[in-house]
Amino acid sequence: MYRRRALGRSTAALFLLVLAGCSSSVDGSATAPLATVDTNPPSVIRTTTPSTPPVTTTQAPTTTTTSSTAPTTTSKAPPTADASAYEGQPGFYFFTSPSGKFECAIVVTETSVAGCHGDFPPTAPRVEGSGAPGSTVAPNTVELTAGSPARFLSSGDPRFHRFDGPARALAYGETLAVPGSGESNGLSCRVDEKAGVSCRDQVGHGFTVSDSAFRLE
């Protein structure tokens, strides 16, 4: 009986001690640590991937080069007359201009000579008269000896006239060519409707005559 009372008193005393401890915690004798509240939360860092500008591809304009080929111009050689159709006696080739104003011939003997008789222009130089030394007259002949310059002269003998028949007309634009007795003394003649009769040798000498103009070379 006594033991029970003593145990009850001990329990009561322990209870009082616990209450006293709690009372001390409440009135501030022992302060429990306060929780820390962070009112500035860390900023959220957003990583932005830089945008790549679109690649613009510019296509160079296509240049088309057109190669134009100039048309080929073929220069045709002037038509050549058949020399045998103009031959009189051997070595003599007679012809006239289509207008009939000039009688001409190519003569190939020991030398090669071409010439004409006709109506020369009044500007042609006067020459020594045939059979009249010291006098000057209008020329009645133009003559080219292969290898020498052409010249006007007065002929008593019309050597470029065909006596055995009419001479054949040399068509405009055709060339009558006769080889010389040597390698470089051939002669050729042609008739142009405007320029008149022209004869040339192989070294650059020649003449061109009409009833209004002339050129000697």
Spatial order of the strands in the main sheet? 7-6-3-2-1-8
The 3D shape can be described as globular
Q: Would you count the extended β strands for me? A: 13
**What is the succession of H and E elements?**
HEEEEEEEEEEEEE
Low-confidence stretches: 1-39, 41-50, 65-70
How would you state the average pLDDT, rounded? Answer: 77
Range of helix content = 10-25%
Radius of gyration: 66 Å
β-sheet strand percentage: 25-35%
Total DSSP helices = 1
End-to-end CA span:
181 Å
Sheet with the most strands? Answer: 6 strands, mixed
From the helix content, strand content and strand pairing, which structural class follows?
Answer: alpha+beta
If you had to describe this structure to a student in words, what would you say it looks like?
12% of the residues lie in helices and 28% in strands. The protein has 1 helix and 13 strands, in the order αβββββββββββββ. The chain has one helix at 2-26; strands at 92-96, 102-108, 112-118, 127-129, 132-137, 141-145, 151-153, 168-169, 175-178, 187-192, 196-200, 206-209, 214-216. Residues 1-39, 41-50 and 65-70 have low confidence and may be disordered.
Write the SSE topology:
Layout: H1 2-26, E1 92-96, E2 102-108, E3 112-118, E4 127-129, E5 132-137, E6 141-145, E7 151-153, E8 168-169, E9 175-178, E10 187-192, E11 196-200, E12 206-209, E13 214-216
Parallel strand pairs: 1-8
Antiparallel strand pairs: 1-2, 2-3, 3-6, 4-5, 6-7, 9-10, 10-11, 11-12, 12-13
